[in-house]
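Anyone up for a design puzzle?
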């Protein structure tokens, strides 16, 4: 019955479609008039078909643009640089050593060649904006070109070090989340859950970089790697003494037996205690550095400007040119501030 109903509906639809153009034709008495109306109707049908095709093309273009916009800007920039500068990019790619391993440790899922293209693109932007900025504040053209060149070199060196900086940040995030994740795993192990299921639970939880790394460990195990190989790979990737201690304790407990839940609880407590001690030392150091930072960023620039004004009044001429003064105020003192902030950031306990 269902198939018969389907055929009946299909036949009715076919008749409806074939009769639809005929309904538009008025019943004229003249053959020439009916032919003219038929040609006009055919022309209207062709125009409707062309309009439908145009709408389809527009929809395809809009869909393509939507996909392009959803793609990260860094990927689009790298692809554009690869398109126009493939030769220099390939030369640089072959000359840079260790970049692929740095990208792997930083979890940057981008090919080496594509990342080198991104490095070149960022360097071009850095050099161009450095030159434009220097030129707009009326620095001589030769000095502006030098600043642009320094901007290009600085951008390239920064992008080369960026994967290592990301890796170090990830190690810090993993170490900070490790005590909480160890307690999480220990609680599940005490309840009778297996070690793989406990790690999967941590991977699905919100522990930031640590959840991502545990997800990669589970993925390695699902693709055929052993538990020991996956954990060892994670240890080598992180390159941290604290993480290495956790991995070795876990592997020892799994291999030789032992209460893994109790071991993880103990490790979590040790990490928390060490972090608290480091935090106390860090706060004590910050008190001294904060005074130096305030002096360098507020007092010293003010004293410098007052000294320049006083010297200019006494000498009845400018002691220092406005361009040089602008460079000192816009670059020298902010650079000192950034150095102090970097020192404070590096001293932050893990």
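Challenge accepted. My sequence:
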């Amino acid at each position: 019955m269902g198939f018969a109903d389907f055929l009946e509906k299909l036949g009715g639809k076919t008749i409806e479609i074939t009769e639809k153009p005929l309904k538009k034709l008025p019943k004229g008495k003249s053959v020439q008039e009916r032919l003219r109306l038929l040609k006009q109707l055919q022309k209207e049908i062709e125009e409707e078909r062309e309009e439908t095709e145009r709408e389809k093309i527009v929809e395809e273009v809009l869909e393509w643009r939507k996909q392009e916009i959803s793609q990260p800007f860094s990927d689009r920039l790298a692809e554009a640089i690869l398109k126009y500068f493939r030769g220099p990019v390939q030369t640089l790619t072959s000359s840079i050593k260790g970049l692929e391993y740095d990208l792997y440790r930083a979890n940057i899922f981008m090919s080496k060649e594509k990342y080198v293209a991104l490095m070149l693109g960022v360097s071009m932007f850095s050099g161009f904006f450095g030159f434009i900025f220097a030129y707009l504040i009326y620095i001589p053209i030769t000095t502006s070109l030098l600043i642009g060149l320094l901007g290009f070199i600085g951008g390239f060196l920064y992008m080369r070090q960026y994967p290592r900086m990301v890796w170090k940040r990830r190690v810090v995030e993993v170490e900070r989340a490790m005590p909480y994740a160890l307690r999480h795993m220990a609680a599940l192990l005490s309840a009778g859950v297996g070690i793989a299921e406990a790690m999967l639970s941590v991977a699905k939880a919100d522990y930031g970089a640590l959840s991502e790394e545990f997800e990669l460990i589970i993925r390695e195990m699902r693709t055929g790697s052993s538990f020991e190989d996956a954990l060892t790979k994670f240890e080598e990737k992180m390159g941290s003494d604290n993480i290495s201690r956790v991995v070795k304790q876990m592997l020892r407990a799994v291999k030789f037996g032992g209460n893994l839940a109790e071991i993880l609880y103990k490790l979590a407590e040790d990490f928390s205690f060490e972090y608290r001690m480091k935090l106390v030392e860090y706060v004590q150091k910050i008190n001294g550095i904060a005074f130096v930072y305030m002096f360098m960023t507020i007092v010293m620039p003010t004293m410098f400007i007052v000294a320049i004004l006083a010297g200019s009044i006494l000498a009845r001429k400018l002691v220092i040119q406005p361009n040089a003064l602008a460079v000192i105020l816009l670059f020298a003192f902010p650079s000192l501030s950034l150095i102090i902030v970097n020192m404070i950031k590096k001293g932050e306990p893990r």
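A detail worth pointing out: The two ends are 73 Å apart (CA to CA).
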